[in-house]
Amino acid sequence: MPDFIASPPDKGTRLDHFLAEKMTDLSRSRVQALINEGHILLNQSPTRPGAKLKEGDQISVTIPAPVSTEIVAEEIPLDILHEDADLIVLNKAPGLVVHPAVGNESGTLVNALLHHCHDLSGIGGEQRPGIVHRLDKDTSGCLVVAKNDQAHQHLAAQFAGRQVQKIYLALVAGILRKKNGSILAPIARHPVHRQKMAVVERGRAAHTDYKVLREWTDGTSLIACTLHTGRTHQIRVHLQHLGHPLLGDAVYGRPKGYPRQMLHAWQLAFNHPRTGERLHLKAPIPADFPALDLNSVNFP
Fewest beta carbons less than 10 Å away: which of 24, 185, 215, 236? Predict the structure, then answer.
């Protein structure tokens, strides 16, 4: 049986507003997250927070079990590119989950950080101490972590204000006709597959610049992608939209023949939260990428 059935007065009401009024122990943002994650179904189908109700609509709600807030420090090796009293920049290994979640309660970057830095607890929240931004599990490369609240707030503001330069290396299928260009395509939750993102006309603005660095006769290309916005799975979705999906990507690309999604957070530049100095960090090209010398490749 559904948890709720829309009555005549509910006609035209947004689903998230309806549930926030019915489930007073949950905030509207929490309700929206549950809808986007597929835990709330409208007439037995995934939907979106802004869906307008009709009389007789059936709403089913599943509240996932909470993840324990007790995170254990674990001695996991870290590849540190830069460290000082305020922050750490890491070269995240592929396969390493950033923070604990259902199914990945241990062995994460956060577990490693709590062992390396004993004063991170609480910065950025109990589940994500010090984490300013994240990388997908199978994406390698530059990741910055704050060591104190002041640094966390300053870095988070730079990410939100698009003051951080982020350049990724991507190994993609096909030979691109245009060797450099911009992808301006809005992104939102996939209308059917709620665990995926997609280019959607009414989505949030998303901007990726790309530049071809190398091509091979087997029909693969290495490109550099500069992110100007930070939408979920942005590069993966934009490359699929361009017709040159990421190799090794089981969700948006071509998974066969590669150990993981071939995406590497290569360069990261931001202003130091205490000194204001512009820091430029570069993560070495991982061993599962083609062996290339890209030292001569420059970006503004």
Answer: 24
Supply the pTM of this predicted model: 0.75
CA–CA dist 16, 4 (Å, integer): 13
Domain termination residue (choose one: 112, 140, 161): 161
Q: Per residue in 241-257, pLDDT tens?
A: 999 999 999 999 888 88
Residue 248: CB atoms within 10 Å: 20
- Please state, in angstroms and rounded to a whole number, the distance separating the CA atoms of residues 71 and 1: 37
Rg over alpha carbons for the chain, rounded to the nearest Å, is 21
Q: What is the CATH classification number for the domain harbouring 240?
A: 3.30.2350.10
Handedness of CA 125, 126, 132, 134 (dihedral sign): negative
32/299 Cα distance (integer angstroms)? 38
Q: Are 35 and 26 in contact (CB under 8 A)?
A: no
- State which of 61, 91, 107 marks the end of a domain: 61
Q: How many CB atoms lie within 10 A of CB 16?
A: 22
Which structure tokens are listed for 207?
Answer: 């901007």
136 is a catalytic site residue: yes
